[in-house]
Write a structure and sequence with these properties.
The complex is a heterotrimer of chains A (about 350), B (about 220) and C (about 800). Chain A is built from no helices and 23 strands. With about 350 residues, chain A is mostly beta strands. Chain A has a single domain (about 20-355), classed as AttH-like fold (Beta Barrel), CATH 2.40.370.10. In chain A, the strands form two sheets. In chain A, strands 1, 2, 3, 4, 5, 6, 7, 8, 9, 10, 11, 12 and 13 form a 13-stranded antiparallel beta sheet that branches. In chain A, a hairpin with a 3-residue loop joins strand 22 (about 330-340) and strand 23 (about 345-350). The two termini of chain A are about 30 Å apart. With about 220 residues, chain B is an alpha/beta fold. Chain B has a single domain (about 5-220), classed as 3-Layer(aba) Sandwich (Rossmann fold). In chain B, helix 3 packs parallel to helix 5 (about 140-155) and helix 4 packs antiparallel against helix 5 (about 140-155). The longest helix of chain B is centred in the last third of the chain and has 18 residues, at about 170-190. The chains are: A mainly beta (about 350), B alpha/beta (about 220), C alpha+beta (about 800). The interface between B and C is large, with 39 and 36 residues.
Chain lengths: ~350, ~220, ~800
Amino acid sequence: MSVKTLLFCLSLALSTPVHAQGFAGLGTSAEGFTMPVPGRRFSFPADHGAHNDFRIEWWYVTANLQAVDGTRYGIQWTLFRSALATDGATGWASPQMWMGHAAITTSDGHHVAERFARGGIGQAGVTAAPFEAWIDAWRMKSRAAANADALSALDLSAAGADFAFDLKLDSDRPLVAHGDGGYSLKSEKGQASYYYSQPFYRVTGELTLPGGPVTVTGQAWLDREWSSQPLAADQVGWDWFSMHFDGGEKLMGFRLRDGGAGFTSGTWISADGVAEPLKRGAIAVTPLRNAVVAQRSLPIRWRVEVPGKGVDVTIQALNENAWMATAFPYWEGPISFDGTKPGRGYLEMTGYMPTADR
Amino acid sequence: MLLDVRQLKKSFATAEGPVHVLHGIDLNLDRGVSLALTGESGSGKSTLLYLVAGLDRPDTGEIYIDGNALMALDDTGLAALRRETVALVFQQYNLIPSLDVAANLAFHARLAGRNDPEWQRHLADRLGLAGILRRYPEQLSGGQQQRVAIGRALAARPRLILADEPTGNLDEATGDTVLALMLSLVSETGSALLMATHSQRLAGRLDRRLHLHAGRFEQ
Amino acid sequence: MKTALTALLSHWRRHPVQLATLLVGLSLATALWSAVQAINSEARTSYARAAATLGQDQLSTLLRKDGSRFDQKIYVALRRAGWLVSPVLEGDKRFGEHRLRVFGIDPLTTPPQAQAVNIAASGALLEFISPPGVFYVSPETATKLAGQATPPLRAIDGIPSGVVITDIGQAQVLLGAPGQISRLLLWPEQPQRRAALSDIAPDLIERAPDETGDLARLTDSFHLNLTAFGFLAFAVGLFIVHSAVGLAFEQRRPMFRTLRALGVPARSLMGVVCLELLTFAVLAGMVGVALGYAIAAMLLPDVAATLRGLYGASVPGAIVVRPETWALGMAIAVFGTLISAAQGLFGVWRLPLLASAQPRAWAQASRQTIIWQLVAAAALLAAAAIIARYGSGLMAGFALLAALLLGAAMALPALLLAGLSAGGALSKSAIAQWFWADARQQLPGLSLALTAMLLALAANIGVGTMVSSFRQTFVGWIEQRLASELYIATRDDTEASAVRTWLASRSDAVLPIWNVDGEVEGMRTAIFGIADHATYRDKWPMLTASPNVWQVVASGDGALINEQLSRRKTLNVGDTITLPGGYKTRIAGVYSDYGNPNAQVIIGVDKLTELFPDVSRLRYAIRVSPEKAQDLAANLRSTFGIPEQNIIDQTTAKELSLQTFERTFKVTGALNVLTLAVAALAMFASLLTLAGMRLPQVAPVWAMGVTRRRLAVMELWRSFVLAILTAIAALPLGLGLAWILLAIVNVEAFGWRLPMYYFPAEWLRLAVLSILATALAAALPAWWLSRLAPSELLRVFANER
């Protein structure tokens, strides 16, 4: 889990994140907003919907796909909610701001689109039942049976100027709660978020690319997370991994970077969906090689070790230039890994400053 | 005596101080007499003529025409004198460019109140202008223009004609013809003529002659 | 070369008045031209800024065919169908005495091309969208609004003057249009798989970016007017330069000849003379442009008021010094100098080494030239007649003006010649005949200046007649239009209904003045509701109307439109118009509506509230006997605490309207006076020039017994006669000009046609003024002549000339 892309923010035109407050202002104080507390139980389907009393929240899907000819693709579909204030004003005055990111990554291309919308007028939002999350024409809509979890079957679509995708996501395994029953700690100082995932999607669908339509299949991972102050003041960014092992197990791991050793955490998920929070020191992530992407030096090759689970793998990106050149730019792209337990997954890296800025 | 000039003095102010042009000139002229004033350029011939014509005033001395003192006349009086008593013929002709030959001929006479078309026609005939009465000065040759100027002066029947190098701009042959005409017409009218010229040859054709040198007459 | 230059320049040391005339003439010509350019470029900059507001010059927009507002649900539906669009709500809102154009935007979806405002930090965004919001305005507007009850102001350079940019949510509240938007900005790059527009929003059409903007188009004619005036003034100024340069060349002819004889090649001589002229041009040009800025700075506030009053265009009242205006001013000064000196330069080039028999180049009365000019004049006037008969549109109007003015200018010398010849034929005495003949002779030298005088005078008569006709019509119109004794603007609905109840027993009638803004026939239109009341039936300034017009309107079956809408869209009684919202109605009448830049429609007040239930109901006209009006106003103010400026009585309203009117034409008046002054100066320069060259003509007459004083008086008389003849010629020309302005240019420029009235007293005043100006111009040369020393005159006779 974790801190995924907590991006957000939304002061438009804010082309440079405010470093002193962490990436995309996520370290700003949460005055007036509700704070995550340990021991709360998730309640579905209500918790699939928006929690307007928390400052930030997201619905985040990544998928590792391949065409019939074996060509590999990655897609991202993200909806962020950010509240500028705690009041419940409606209409145009609503403080709820929405932002969407969508991308398709190929080995030689990276197509990105971004959307913004005001809450309160219907342009973007999330309804818990029937479940639908949307911004403009992008949507994630449940087609689950009445007795099943709403997120077990989803239609997912988005379109940008030079790409589009329409995917069907299906899972027969349960939702996975991270941390302490969904209470996911983000720093020694107690910053935390509510965090659950559905990492077991099988995917079918079609991508539209400049070269034409491509039928694809693969696997997808959905993250749901909300909080009001997920980063500590000294945390500048994070490296986050979601990994599908060929044997069916899943691993979510992250490292929050600060002035020192950082804060590393993760969840081991068995093939049948049983989650096991990794104890302190149970997971190690080590950058192996940096590459220059968008004037930044990014660790593009990693070693991930979970000795307790027999994991020692080397990660490489499908496309090292999977740069999200959005209002709050970051790196997000499909990866594959070799070693003791090979597989595929997604890597997200935020908070790296342009070289010239240092 | 028509013209009586006594002890006439005239000087002009210049940057280098006054230049004395006339140093006490005495001159008299009777009716019907022609007098040539000869002298070098700058000897004072023109100045003397202009003073007699009432175009300028002397520093000291007196000028009487028909017994009237010019000194006593104001601008208006001098203008009346120029209109009615004297007439001028210039080297540069000085016709009025906006009027045709006939109107130029009549102009001075009409100003003087002595318009006499018959007399003007006679003059035109005598001066050979009959065929060009409708022309304008700029369309005439120098000899023709000077003949118009002489006609204009005579048409007013002045008692005194003042001519300043009237043939100075003309070639010798034309000049002789024009002068002959003028002298003949002057004697016809009984006017007196005071003519400035630097040519001794022309001066010899007048009744009297005086030579001016450095502002004084030389005998 | 240097020696030659020194010799040439020594001339000016000895003739300082001539030098002054040359420099003053050139400076003035450049000044008026530059002033107009500076004003125009100031205005155009602000139009370009307005056109670029929210990227309208680069972005396509989606809007309703009739321009009316629509539900924001359509916006959401389009977004959800994949369209990248951003909503804008636009409308006028009054703050105190300032009427502002409010643009409500959604900063989250605004395309980059439309981001005049950088709502950066997230704190700013929250403040921007939360009540009461934030107003982004130009620094100038911020100054104006200081102290008004507005949301917090943020001054940003680059926002057009008079424009407010605020959040769309706040704009909906301010403009009383909840849930409404005016149009959608279309992002240049759209995503794949958008639904067809016709499926989502069949009411909307796509409009291409408007690079020019309505204001630039609307005000085009106004600026063309100014430019024409500037050009006229410049041309008149060049007459002065021409005279002065001509004289200087004439007087230096012997010097040129000497220099040539001493071996200076013609080419070098030309070079030196050109260098001299360029030096003058640069000097005078700099002074002229500076002076032009001063004039522009003086006039701009009135121009700005005019543009605001007539077109709703907001132009800042301060002039900005622009390098291109300087460059253009200098260029025009140099160009003008060379044009004016062309004749003289040609003379130097062709100068024969030996003196010619006839040095009087100026005095050569060329009958052929006059005949040629007369033919040209006839052709031009015929062209004018044809344009007047068959032409249409503003360009035709100006072509007609140009043909008429040029034709008249060409015909003037022949006309004057005829007048002078007639004078000569009628005169008896020799001196009178000489007078007329001499005047004829001087004509070629004076005709340029007289032409300048003719044009200036005709422009004055023409524009004066237009303005006076306008004023007369306007005053009468305002009597009709402002028939009610009091006008009140309440501050909210509660106050409005309280005031109405309170007034019920205290006044004869309370008439609503309610209106909504929208687009009718593609024009920005105010739609008013009108009560069925004698005030309107008796007084409304109707131009054409169907029978029972008031019954028809009151019953909701018809609409009145103003003359502007009628003329611009060729709509007449009986035609049908579509109001915002799609309601179609028949035109029952057309009324005059002077001083309003926009289209206007009037329907019955019941129909208005039926069609637009949300119409703001705050403004009323109150009928009460006039002697009670003041007390009632005071009573209203004290009872309800209504601010001073929210209640206005009829007299004040009329005064304000007339003030606006006067300001509108102040610029025209100022330019008129300046042009006339320049023409008088041209006259002076010409007479001065001639005076210097006239001695050979005057001296023989003096020698034959005409006093200098008499000659001087005749000089004055000659100028008088010429001025009178010119003034007589200027009258019909001026009236023709007025007719073109009233019947063609005004209709195109402002959208209304006015009756033409005649003001003989005014013409007389102008004629006397111009004759006096001419006499004044002639006085100095005449005085010189009367005081001329005989020795000066005698020099003419000198044998060694």
